[in-house]
Specification:
The complex is a heterodimer of chains A (365) and B (358). Chain A is α+β, with helices and mostly antiparallel strands. Chain A has helices at residues 41-49, 91-101, 106-119, 135-148, 165-182, 193-199, 217-222, 227-232, 287-292, and strands spanning 2-12, 15-26, 30-34, 56-61, 64-65, 76-79, 153-157, 185-190, 202-207, 210-216, 239-246, 249-252, 257-259, 270-276, 281-283, 296-307, 311-318, 321-328, 338-343, 349-351, 357-360, 363-364. Helices cover 25% and strands 36% of the residues of chain A. In chain A, strands 13-12-11-14-20-21-22 form a seven-stranded antiparallel sheet, with no helix packed on it. A six-stranded mixed sheet of chain A has the order 6-7-8-3-9-10, with helices on both faces. Classes of the chains: A alpha+beta (365), B alpha+beta (358). The A-B interface holds A 36-37, 134-135, 164-167, 169, 173, 177, 191-194, 197-198, 200, 218, 221-222, 231, 234-237, 277, 279, 303-304, 306-310, 313, 315, 324, 326, 330, 335 and B 43-45, 141-142, 172-174, 177, 180-181, 184-185, 188, 199-202, 205-207, 225-226, 228-230, 239-245, 283, 285, 301, 303-307, 312, 326.
């Protein structure tokens, strides 16, 4: 089965919720919708499910137009951020309910429920009711119900957002494996870039109702085609700096210049925005090491310092810009300190004035 | 601002609860220093919100006393404790402007107009709201509204403490960076005693000077972020702090080395005849792949997070995760791991024991 969106858009009361979107999702894949709150993740899912009708465009399921088909007739399961179960039923009956609706035999139901419960670590609590369970268990129960349905399309709308950090970590590790076995099309909405990376598969980045890029999760992360995608798929936020390129020199606002490296020599002269991630700012290197590193050296002021035990997070001011830097270990620094930072040239993104990626790391796009 | 003392404090929700298991909060003695930044960290149901509610006066403890600067406030209701609170969901008055929202707690207490204006201007500048002071709160984004809540919590100079209950949970990840920075600078500039409740270790470790790690109603460890990371007192702390958490492996301890599946593993300290269930704990960050001379592992699954990869493997039958930084080579031919000896912790019956350094 495949799900295809052809020019699907949604306009509500004259407001554009989803810009015309083309997407093809294949059977057995995990597809992450990544974007901030109100970027259109839930709207897009509701269109995919058939809960809402698109204003324009068509939705095809394995090539068949299902745009006007009611949600009840489509083979879809959905899991929400809130833990939704039948409070009066036991976990067993909750999981069994979609199977009973299908009229399966008692033995078949029993077998499917028990296998799924085993997978989701619910076996020991099958006899309990949802409200007696922890949030993590309640959400496992909702996930199990979505799984047994054997739906061709499973939509998960920030399913872990209401769970504790550690539980999230655990379930997040299990979800891709559970779903691999199921072979459906999975769509998973999240606001967290790290969650997208942990889930793997494919990612569509969303910004103001627009899918800005779609591809394998790591390729979108490593090669964001636009400034917008780079912003959406970066936590901590990507750092930016304006530069001018003239002949073989790259000049920064504060007057600093660096020699343009060979890989950028082909770029036309003009204004660019340089983007770099928090892990690619190097702090406290000696002059000699820094130069050998062929990095750009810039002088910043420390605005905030946070220690996590293993790493130090720094907020740095450079001109008008505030950057985030992450360095290993504990750094002895104080707010207001002036520090030299080095940008790793092999990890820089060049965006042109239109915000399009023109060079990334050591290759020109 | 005040120093807050918890004296033999404990709480049970059961009316006649006397058994230990009835207690949502087990006996606790602690002094929160004036002007300190504290985090209460733990999973759901660990007792952190119960403790916060006892400090704020929303819950009357079944046992023990709460003192503010030496004065017993245990029987005082919340509104008489002079405490500011910030909750998970922003609490703002939609029909008021941002300025009126910030001024509200001061106006309510009859502060002079000039003073109110000066204070509001100061807070607005620190929290980055100065450009929207005259906008109505209605229609603002969630993070802007939460900034107002934070600002309103900070606006009164005279509060005894500011209690924050999961204040960043509903904020998008990228915006959390900005809010955390502002919260830190507010604390630094204004010097309030602040207690921050969260289940998110990154928030707790980055915010607090002292993190109080709780589990099942008990405080397991209280210390700096570094001490919780490097030397967790209990295996639960090791597991909870860090992502993924600390690896634990059953091992016998023989002086300056551990033995795992018959193979010696050098330790960074000397341990004398430990008895009980002995384990070593090692963080994924301190496990390295090696070509030879290490412990054999089978790689099961790799997560690529961009700036690092997390390799999930098995050592005999125990799961072990390894954090491989970006740029470090890793391929499937690497089937052995070694541990940095100084970074190995030893646990007996789940509690960390201190070795003698050489």
């Amino acid at each position: 089965m495949s799900l295809e969106l052809q020019g699907v858009s949604q306009v509500v009361d004259g407001q554009l919720h989803i810009a015309p979107t083309d997407l093809v999702l294949e059977k057995g894949t995990m597809n992450v919708l990544l974007g901030p709150t109100s970027s259109g993740k839930t709207s897009l899912m509701r269109l995919m499910a058939g809960l809402d009708k698109p204003s324009t465009g068509r939705i095809l399921s394995s090539g068949t137009d299902v745009t006007n088909q009611r949600v009840q007739l489509r083979n879809v399961a959905m899991v929400y951020q809130e833990f939704i179960n039948y409070p009066g039923m036991t976990v067993f009956d909750n999981i069994a309910s979609p199977l009973r609706l299908k009229g399966q035999s008692k033995a078949d139901i029993d077998r499917t429920v028990r296998t799924t419960a085993e997978m989701l670590k619910l076996t020991s609590i099958l006899h309990r009711r949802p409200l007696e369970l922890s949030g993590g268990q309640q959400q496992r129960c909702a996930l199990a119900r979505a799984l047994v349905k054997g739906a061709e399309l499973v939509l998960l709308d920030e399913p872990l957002a209401n769970l504790d950090y550690k539980l999230r970590e655990e379930l997040r590790a299990e979800i891709p494996r559970i779903f691999e076995q199921a072979g459906s099309i999975f769509v998973y909405a999240t606001t967290e870039p790290e969650e997208a990376l942990l889930l793997g598969g494919n990612t569509a980045t969303l910004w103001e109702g627009q899918v800005t890029q779609f591809g394998s999760t790591l390729s979108v992360y490593r090669h964001p085609e636009s400034l917008t995608t780079a912003r959406v798929f970066s936590d901590p936020p990507m750092n930016f700096i304006a530069v001018g390129k003239a002949a073989d020199a790259l000049s920064f606002n504060d007057g600093a210049t660096v020699h343009v490296h060979d890989q950028w020599a082909g770029l036309p002269d003009g204004k660019y925005t340089l983007g770099f991630r928090a892990h690619h700012i190097n702090i406290g290197l000696s002059e000699a090491v820094g130069s050998e590193f062929q990095a750009a050296q810039l002088r910043c002021t420390v605005v905030a310092i946070e220690a996590t035990g293993s790493e130090t997070f720094l907020r740095l001011r450079y001109g008008d810009a505030i950057w985030v830097a992450i360095t290993p270990g504990l750094k002895k620094m104080a707010v207001g300190d002036s520090v030299n930072v080095w940008l790793d040239v092999t990890q820089l993104y060049f965006f042109d004035e239109a915000g399009c990626l023109v060079s990334c790391g050591d290759s020109v796009v | 601002m005040a120093q807050i003392t918890l004296s033999n404090l404990a709480h049970t929700y059961a009316p006649s609860g006397e058994q230990e298991s009835d207690f949502a909060l087990k006996t606790l003695n602690h002094v929160w220093q004036e002007g300190g930044a504290y985090a209460l960290l733990g999973p759901s149901g660990c007792g952190k919100t119960t403790l916060l509610n006892i400090i704020s006066g929303l819950i009357m403890p079944s046992h023990g006393r709460v003192l503010f600067d030496g004065t017993d406030v245990t029987d005082l209701p919340a509104e008489k404790r002079n405490i500011a609170q910030v909750f998970q969901f922003p609490v703002v008055y939609d029909t008021m402007s941002v300025r009126e929202n910030l001024a509200f707690p001061l106006k309510n207490r009859g502060l002079a107009r000039a003073e109110t204006e000066a204070r509001v201007a100061l807070i607005a500048e620190m929290i980055g709201l100065e450009d929207i002071l005259d906008q109505k709160a209605r229609g603002l984004t969630t993070d802007a509204k939460q900034k107002i809540s934070l600002g309103r919590g900070m606006v009164r100079e005279s509060v005894n403490a500011i209690l924050l209950d999961e204040p960043l949970t509903v904020i998008d990840p990228q915006l959390k960076w900005e809010l955390r920075t502002q919260l830190k600078s507010l604390h630094r500039e204004l010097g309030h005693t602040m207690i921050y409740v969260t289940h998110d270790q990154v928030e707790a470790l980055t915010f607090a000077d002292t993190v109080v790690m709780m589990h099942e109603g008990r405080v397991l460890q209280m210390g700096t972020p570094e001490s919780l990371f490097e030397t967790p007192k209990h295996t639960f702390v090791g597991h909870f702090i860090g992502s993924p958490g600390m690896n634990f492996l059953d091992a016998s301890i023989e002086g300056n080395h551990a033995v795992i599946n018959g193979q010696p593993v050098p330790l960074g300290a000397n341990y004398r005849n430990p008895c009980g269930h002995t384990q070593i704990g090692i963080r994924p960050e301190y496990v390295q792949f090696t070509a030879d001379g290490g412990l054999p592992v089978v790689v099961r699954h790799i997560e690529d997070l961009g700036h690092r990869r997390i390799v999930h493997a098995e050592l005999e039958r125990s799961p072990i995760s390894v954090s491989v930084p970006e740029g470090c080579p890793f391929d499937s031919t690497m089937t052995q791991v070694r541990f940095i000896p100084e970074k190995i912790n030893v646990f007996i019956d789940s509690w960390r024991v201190e070795g003698e350094t050489f």
